[in-house]
């Protein structure tokens, strides 16, 4: 197969490889950083204040730490790991795997948002409900639906912003999820200068939202797209793409930047944590997928914030 010539701007690798390499190394320090243990007692006091029913015995800091380790260990393995930490005095005491299962599976995923305004790129991808492979599906007819994950990220800073997970064919469209994510950012006081999206985001409601809030689009309109009455922003994009041609249009609006924010994130998460889940219940499986992206963002942010 003859390799096609790359078009667009010549690629210039300006990454600080020494700094990036150091960040990858520092991510490993996260697993032996037990600063959060110092607030064990105070955190439990806050959790149990005015609490009705049984008192919590383990702080959320421990559960979040175990939620990260769950990407590599199962719940019984996490009990053994925590038991050894307790034996060596790193944590006051260990929880059993039932407690770990119950609390990790209910952990709410949330991303630390930047303190400044951010651009947004949104895209979706599939995750496997099991690791049986296509052979098993053909032979035994047990193919289960994929889990669809839609993420929004800042392609400029390579930062996760939001994540939605649902069963294949049962959730909102990618365009609707993008609007929801951007509306959430706007509600928190953020300004969004620009939005990137592929052909799945050529949606009237999405363009109306971008026009209403003054957000510059970098959305690939469909090949057969035509101008529509009252859709000023979308009409401009449709006409610009037809007049300039796809390659010039993509170069002028930096359409390729979206790969850094979404495709790069999907690649990194799937490469590190795999694209299948171990949970059997639908709710737990959805939370597990979101946990993969939360874990990646947490480790990345931890390394970037170290002196």
Topology:
Elements: H1 17-27, H2 40-48, H3 60-69, H4 75-87, H5 97-104, E1 120-127, H6 133-140, E2 147-154, E3 159-167, H7 174-187, E4 194-197, H8 204-212, E5 216-219, H9 232-244, H10 246-252, H11 258-273, H12 282-304
Parallel strand pairs: 1-4, 4-5
Antiparallel strand pairs: 1-2, 2-3
Helix pairs in contact: 1-12, 4-5, 9-10
Low-confidence stretches: none
How many structural units, i.e. domains? 2
Order of helices and strands: HHHHHEHEEHEHEHHHH
With strands numbered from the N-terminus, the spatial order across the biggest sheet is 3-2-1-4-5
- Mean pLDDT rating: 89
Largest sheet: 5 strands, mixed
The share of residues in helices is 40-55%
Q: Percent of residues in beta strands?
A: 5-15%
Shape: elongated
List how many beta strands DSSP finds: 5
Structural class: alpha/beta
The N- and C-terminal alpha carbons lie at a distance of 48 Å
Rg calc: 22 Å
Count of alpha/pi helices: 12
Task: Summarize the entry for a quick read.
The protein has 307 residues and is of the alpha/beta class. It has helices at residues 17-27, 40-48, 60-69, 75-87, 97-104, 133-140, 174-187, 204-212, 232-244, 246-252, 258-273, 282-304; strands spanning 120-127, 147-154, 159-167, 194-197, 216-219. The relative contact order is 0.13.
Give descriptors for this structure.
five-stranded mixed beta sheet, alpha/beta, 307 residues, 12 helices, elongated, 46% helix, single chain
């Amino acid at each position: 197969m003859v390799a096609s010539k790359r078009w667009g701007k010549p690629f210039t690798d300006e990454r600080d490889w020494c700094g990036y390499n150091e960040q990858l190394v520092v991510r490993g320090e996260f697993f032996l950083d037990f600063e959060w243990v110092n607030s064990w007692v105070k955190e439990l006091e806050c959790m149990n204040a005015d609490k009705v029913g049984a008192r919590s015995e383990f702080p959320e800091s421990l559960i979040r730490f175990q939620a990260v380790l769950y990407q590599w260990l199962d719940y019984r393995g996490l009990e053994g790991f925590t038991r050894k930490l307790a034996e060596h005095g790193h944590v006051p005491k260990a929880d059993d795997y039932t407690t770990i299962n119950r609390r990790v599976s209910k952990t709410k995923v949330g991303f630390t948002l930047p303190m400044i305004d951010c651009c947004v790129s949104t895209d979706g991808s599939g995750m496997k409900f099991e690791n049986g492979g296509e052979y098993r599906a053909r032979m035994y007819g047990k193919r289960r639906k994929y889990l669809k994950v839609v993420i929004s990220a800042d392609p400029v800073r390579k930062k996760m912003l939001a994540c939605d997970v649902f069963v294949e064919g049962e959730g909102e469209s990618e365009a609707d999820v993008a609007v929801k994510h951007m509306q959430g950012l706007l509600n928190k006081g953020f300004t969004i200068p620009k939005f990137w999206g592929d052909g799945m985001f050529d949606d009237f409601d999405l363009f109306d939202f971008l026009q209403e809030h003054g957000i510059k689009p970098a959305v690939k309109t469909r090949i057969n797209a035509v101008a529509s009455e009252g859709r000023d922003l979308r009409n401009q994009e449709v006409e610009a793409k037809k007049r300039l041609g796809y390659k010039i249009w993509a170069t002028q609006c930096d359409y390729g930047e979206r790969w850094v924010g979404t495709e790069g994130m999907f690649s990194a998460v799937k490469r590190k944590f795999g694209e299948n889940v171990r949970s059997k219940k639908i709710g737990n499986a959805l939370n597990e997928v979101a946990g993969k992206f939360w874990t990646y963002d947490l480790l990345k942010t931890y390394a970037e914030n170290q002196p």
